[in-house]
């Protein structure tokens, strides 16, 4: 029997009802089910490897009015749906196409196979049902009838590899091998999988040279990578004096470095290259006389003495002109990576906090006056203009 709910609909705000007056009562019914139609070509073979999409049509559940319904697709190898998976995405129309690749990927998990040789070679039945919900409501999901696609030929499909969105640097100096204290590297704008950090790679209190590793998660989970898993860029090995330190990247020339990790995807694996660059930071724009994208030495920040340790500030040259903010670009600063525009690695200080642009939008403007300087502590992620 259908469950009946009473909803009070106010004039403002509920988009899935037609025009109504204040305090008008609408009776919302909780349907028991709704109809998923059998596709026109269901009796044929669905060759998922050579098919882009599968079309489905459905009738809307009878809620007692026309509702903004969202449909999701569930599939199973058994008609009773003892085990099933929900495919990615939702659909707002009663006729829609689903991705054949999404089905293929889901089938790998349903078949519980880890090797391509174990995947079924012959077509087999696949059972499909829909769930329906009302967008923005707390109404319980409604399930459609179950239909059978008698002959579905899957393949050993794996989810597409995507670039890591985070990267962390750890070491005996950087974080003391504690992931909770590791350096979170900064994404390079417009270059997925590429990250940078201004990193102190001096010596430990005991006089040992720095050793580092990386991971795209803050964990010892088997995905960390060091000397044997990376390609060190041309020129970087000599600059930093890198070596194999028991699988870590050893730094033979203690100092500050811009450390860059670049990720690539080869087959089902990530590959990584690491570069060590001089720790040069530059003022940009009106505060340096109107120079944008400059790498002139006169506009460089002073590099702190190595004896000051990691907790030291990079200090800019004095501003040569005022910068008011939005009208003239404000105070701007950046590092410069080969092959990139300066603004793709820019950063600024807001209320004492160092904030990199990273992969995000253009940053808010900060004003400055002639004679002031910008100071940044890259380790603590703090800074000031004074």
From TrEMBL:
Recorded GO CC terms: outer membrane
Name of one Pfam family that matches: SusF_SusE
Signal peptide: 1-19
Protein origin, superkingdom: Bacteria
InterPro entries in alphabetical order: SusE, SusF/SusE-like_C
Domain SusE outer membrane protein: 21-111
Start and end residues of each Outer membrane protein SusF/SusE-like C-terminal domain: 166-270, 280-384
The keyword Signal belongs to this UniProt entry's keyword annotation: yes
UniProtKB keywords: Signal
Keyword Signal annotated: yes
GO molecular function: starch binding
Identification of the protein by name: CBM-Ec_CBM-Fc
Organism listed in the record: Proteiniphilum saccharofermentans
Lineage: Bacteria, Pseudomonadati, Bacteroidota, Bacteroidia, Bacteroidales
């Amino acid at each position: 029997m259908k469950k009946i709910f009473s909803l009070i609909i106010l004039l403002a705000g509920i988009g899935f009802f037609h025009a109504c007056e204040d305090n008008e009562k609408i009776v919302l019914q909780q349907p028991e089910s709704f109809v998923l139609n059998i596709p026109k070509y269901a009796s044929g073979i669905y060759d998922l490897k050579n098919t882009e999409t599968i079309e489905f049509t459905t009738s809307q559940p009878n809620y007692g009015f026309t509702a903004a319904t969202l449909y999701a697709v569930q599939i199973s190898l058994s008609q009773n749906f003892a085990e099933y998976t929900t495919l990615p995405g939702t659909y707002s129309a009663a006729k829609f196409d689903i991705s054949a690749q999404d089905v293929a990927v889901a089938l790998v998990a349903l078949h519980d196979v880890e090797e391509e040789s174990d995947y079924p070679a012959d077509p087999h039945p696949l059972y499909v049902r829909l769930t329906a919900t009302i967008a923005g409501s707390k109404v319980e999901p409604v399930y459609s009838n179950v239909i059978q696609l008698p002959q579905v030929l899957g393949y050993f499909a794996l989810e597409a590899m995507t670039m890591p969105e985070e990267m962390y640097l750890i070491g005996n100096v950087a974080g003391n091998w504690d992931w909770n204290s590791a350096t979170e590297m900064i994404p390079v704008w417009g270059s997925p999988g590429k990250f940078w950090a201004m990193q102190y790679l001096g010596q430990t209190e005991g006089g040992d040279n720095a050793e580092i590793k990386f991971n795209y998660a803050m964990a010892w989970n088997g995905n960390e990578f060091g000397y044997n898993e990376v390609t060190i860029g041309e020129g970087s090995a000599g600059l930093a004096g890198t070596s194999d330190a028991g699988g870590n990247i050893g730094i033979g020339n203690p100092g500050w470095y811009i450390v860059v990790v670049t990720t690539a995807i080869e087959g089902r694996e990530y590959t990584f290259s690491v570069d060590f660059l001089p720790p040069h930071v530059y003022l940009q724009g009106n505060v340096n006389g109107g120079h944008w994208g400059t790498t002139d030495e006169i506009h460089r920040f002073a590099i702190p003495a190595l004896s000051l340790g990691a907790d030291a500030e990079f200090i800019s040259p004095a501003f040569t002109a005022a910068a008011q903010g939005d009208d003239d670009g404000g105070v701007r600063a950046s590092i410069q990576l080969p092959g990139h525009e300066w603004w793709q690695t820019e950063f600024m200080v807001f209320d004492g906090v160092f904030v990199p642009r990273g992969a995000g939008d253009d940053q808010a403007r900060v004003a400055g006056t002639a004679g002031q300087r910008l100071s940044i502590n890259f380790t603590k992620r703090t800074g000031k203009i004074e």
